Amino acid sequence: MTKAMTTTAPRRARGEYAKTKERREAILDAALEVFAEGGYRAGSLREVAQRVSMSEAGLLHHFPNKVALLQAVLDRRDEMSRKLVPIEGDDGAALLRGLVRLAAHNASVPGVVELFCTLSAEATSPDHPAHAYFVRRYNYTRDNITRAFASLAAVNRVTAGLTPERAAITLIAMMDGLQVQWLLDRDVVDMAETLQRLIASFVDIDWDVEDPPA
Q1: Pairing with 60, which of 67, 80, 158, 193 sits 20 to 30 Å away (CA)?
Q2: What pLDDT does 111 receive?
Q3: What pLDDT sits at residue 17?
Q4: How far apart, in whole angstroms, are the C-alpha atoms of residue 167 and residue 133?
Q5: What whole-number distance in Å separates Cα of residue 191 and Cα of residue 188?
Q6: Looking at the DSSP assignment, which residues form a beta bridge with residue 203?
Q7: Whole-angstrom Cα distance, residue 205 to residue 152?
Q8: Distance of CA 12 to CAs 8, 15, 17, 93, Å?
């Protein structure tokens, strides 16, 4: 009897953990849809809960408030991005190739792209709950892309007269602008191809290299 109890309890715990993880992911997917459709301010926890067939109180068991839910959605997006882009690696060319891979991936998740574009615009207001997040994110992204261009400039692979800082700022602006244009007309804009062409005008790197997973 004692032995049976000690072997079955962990199984229940693992099952409960898997179920909780699955439910949290379903909530994040629903939140992404709701926030993308109407913006963060207009999206309600009640609507998110309804989309996963649970009560608002049940949702709050997983995420204590709307700000916590928003942060979890943003963290999930960043986690996926880091799997495609070696943002903190030492290989500048690999980072830039990763950004093109990310642009190609984003074309398969329009809801995520729409949420990011909507939130980044809303978050320019200092009182927006995601304001600090986007300030940190842009600083972090700009610093790492600048470092990537600097590493390539050190071996004379950057277009003459283009500073790493200017290249990074221009590249980020291009990425954000491409997403907006793509959302408006997906038949006209190819985000990955356009981004690769821009980067190729900045640096001389090998595009045929298969980088290891980040």
Answers
A1: 80
A2: 82
A3: 67
A4: 23
A5: 10
A6: 158
A7: 9
A8: 6, 5, 8, 47
Annotate the chain with three-state secondary structure: CHHHHHHHHHHHHHHHHHHHHHHHHHHHHHHHHHHHHHCCCCCCHHHHHHHCCCCHHHHHHHCCCHHHHHHHHHHHHHHHHHHHCCCCCCCHHHHHHHHHHHHHHHCCCHHHHHHHHHHHHHCCCCCCCCHHHHHHHHHHHHHHHHHHHHHHHCCCCECCCCCHHHHHHHHHHHHHHHHHHHHHCCCCCCHHHHHHHHHHHHECCCCCCCCCCC
User: What residue ranges of the chain have pLDDT lower than 70?
Assistant: 1-14, 16-17, 213-214
Residue corresponding to tokens 């972090």: 140
Amino acid occupying residue 170:
T
CA nearest neighbour of 31 among 118, 135, 127: 118
